[in-house]
Fold each of these.
Amino acid sequence: MEFTVDTRALPKVEAEALVTYAFEQEKPVEGILARLDEAVGGALTKLAASGELTGKMLDTTLMYYPQGLAAQRLLIVGAGKKDKFGTAELRRLAATAVRALKTRQVKSVAFLARESDRTAASAQAIVEGMILANFDSDKYKTDKKPGNEIKTAALAGWEESSRADADQGLARGRVIAESQNFARELGNEPSNRLTPRMLADRAAAMAREAGLAVEVLDEKKIADLKMGALLSVAQGSVEPPRMIIITYTPEKVNTGAPVLGLVGKAITFDTGGISIKPANDMEKMKYDMCGGAAMIGAMRAIAALKPSCKVIAVIPSSENMPGGRAQKPGDVQISMAGKSIEVINTDAEGRLVLADGIAYAKQLGCTHLVDAATLTGAVVVALANVNVGVFGSDQAFTDQLLASAKVAGEKMWPLPIDDEYREMIKSGIADIQNVGSGKGGGAITAAMFIKEFTGDTPWIHLDIAGTAWQDDVKPWNAKGATGVGVRTLVDLAMKFGSNGSNAK
Ligand code: BES
Ligand code: ZN
Ligand code: ZN
């Protein structure tokens, strides 16, 4: 999608569709909405009076060939209650407009921002919404309609004086949303088309293009480094594992400055291993690499936006398969950190590969860690597909991430990791076991397991099992991989270290 900033007067804005938004029970009597109403001969006032234009969140009203406008269509999207409106709503309604229009073969749109939304943050949200909405997972359809997408989009309504804000928001929004779409593309790939080796190739190609350093550890190097937990998951598969390391280094690095580590689970297919999963829904386990994909996507945006801190992504990748060489329940493995692990259930493999990913990230010098993983069915029980489960060992760092999630419009909710839960992962014969004993708290005991490997390093765990995949199409979004986490992590990286608050 190509973007421009259009500062011309409303009636002159040319596009196949002009889009704007109205609040609940709003009468078009003020500002730009009044001018629009005037241009179309009072049609908006009439539609509002007749009850057709409600302003209810995401309700759409479409007018064809509106008199007085150069645009061929006028689409008004409901913005909901004015006091509940923010950039998250703006992003979503811009997205809804794109999806409503692209199915009608519209190729060019102009999005008219209301007066209070002529800020860089709003421009960013609008652009993000539009790019995310323009994405569809039809890569393997042979009968896809050619070009069923919006080609050009103008940000309309901006004054010359606010043009710089529009440009800045546009640049940021574009790279972030395109990076999120890259993560979604990876998440949607079937496991026969995205093995750990292929994921490493895709990540390396992205890194080279973006100007990032990349290193891929093969199975031999992984064995040399004694990453026994990752190897134990991989041993049941003919596909070898990979450890993918992508590094962003700012131009000026101060000694002792904090280094942000992003560790992402990338199981390209999770059968459960010998503790095999039921057939129902198993096909979805191709998305068990979405934590890794989120980190790869975030690094792509970080390369372009250049935060002031160093960021290292560490992505352990493997298949989890049953087979003659597969690990078995009860096996004991020695992780890179030297901790012994009793593998009670081979389906709790994500925490195993993360254990070695975290140990390696620490060895590489990360002072702060965030991991993202489609880790547990239990987090889906707790938070459904609405919120990411957030676990943190350092309150200030966790608060920073939650603030970034708010800005980015990604819903996240903190869950507890009290010491009492540590009891539940005590093993009879090893240092730790990979599932909780007793009942309940499955997302927490999984987090507790990972925490064991973080030591004193401030750490946040994002359980994205419920939010990384969307089963049904939404008015604002295609179904499939969501790319959740990318926007939050990029916002966190941009702020991290820049104010000195993370200096240790
Ligand atoms: N990849 C799954 C978690 C998952 C479940 C992701 C549903 C997406 C949707 C993970 O590896 C897993 O199988 N976890 C087990 C852990 C259990 C054996 C302790 C689970 O949640 O059932
Ligand atoms: Zn599993
Ligand atoms: Zn898994």
Amino acid sequence: MYFTKSFIPILKNNPTEAKIKSHQLMLRIGMIKQSSAGIYSWLPLGFKVMKKIEQIVREEQNRIGVQEILMPTIQSSDIWKESGRYEDYGEEMLRIKDRQNREMLYGPTNEELVTEIFRSSIKSYKSLPQLLYHIQWKFRDELRPRFGIMRCREFYMKDAYSFDLNDEEALFSYNKFFLSYLKTFKRLELSAIPMAADTGPIGGNLSHEFVILAETGESKIYTDKRIFEVNSDNTKLEKKSLSVLRNKFEEFYAVTDEKYNEKDFMEKVNDKYRLNTKGIEVGHIFYFGDKYSKPMNASVDFKGQKQFVKMGSYGIGVSRLVGAIIEAKYDDKNEIMKWPISVAPYECVIIPAITKNDDSNLVKANKVSNLLNDKNIDIIIDDTDENFSAKMKKFNLIGIPFQILIGKNTEGDLLEFREIGKESQKLKINQIIEIINSKKK
Ligand code: 5CA
């Protein structure tokens, strides 16, 4: 891709309306464009990042045996009346009427719809567990949408649902998601900690929020610092191993605001380990037993007996993660962003020095680009005739993790190559391909 042909509308200065660095950067480098309050269009740079995050989320769901489906954004109010949430959900729910005057709504979450899908087909306990997920737009008419895509009205979410025969099996499902979330966020180079949380309008009495630390986060958190050292690497997808893992985390005090109790915090956590800060909620898991299955009559036959299934739901804020990664990786003082290569909008940028009368470096850049493209490396070439330092400044903001600089330091087949923010080195093209591809694994 040539920069001059790309749709990357860069702003000269930070937009004044943005209060936090992720929102500033996303507007500044043209990842998103606001269309109305709390509703955004995703432009190529932002869309590419979000799609890559989505794919990682998907792979980690598939890995634990969750099956992907796709439910619609528009739902009928009937099923919400069955569960009793139609009234409870209040003004955050966007209610719509169709031409027949039927009450519809834009789904803020999908417990009812997925329960309806489950109950119409699954009749025997032998088909359990059923684990289903989808990745779909949601709408919540937030009172105060803010911080760009962090708290907006229309957002992209992965939501999964589990159906089990009894509490023991249902907790096994819950714990699978618990481990899966740790792995997902690790692949995004985020350190997310599971914290005991409130269940709000979803319901139930067991719930964890996955929170990454950030001064600009909206969640207040209270934790024992040692929780960051809990290692989940060797956990197996087995009941025992998963419950050992959860216990290891739950040994340490870690709660969000609603669950906070000052006396407990002081008593349970030695002052040298106490951490009281803010964070961004990137995922949230819930166990709520038969809260939906009972009123909606979702049951299976268990050896001649009717049993309501036990359910949980598991969300990841896919669009919010774009902002969360920026909060974690963007050095706004020096205006340098660095995307993890797994989600970078392009993997490598080629920056040739070009003047009005000499485009020989652009010719070289094209050759290098073709060779890298052949090895499946996603490239952008800055073919503008801006001066070199302006190009560097621009690409420091855009945050492509690898750069090839073609100018006076290019000698023969040795190219100037660097990882963003680091010293450059002179390397042959094959060495560059090897480095980039090794980081992609
Ligand atoms: N049904 C459950 C689990 S699937 C549910 O809806 N959970 S949730 O309300 O906690 O949302 C899941 C995730 O979506 C949150 O952890 C958060 O990362 C993201 N999210 C929630 N509200 C917003 C919002 N207004 N803007 C952006 N992301 C949001």
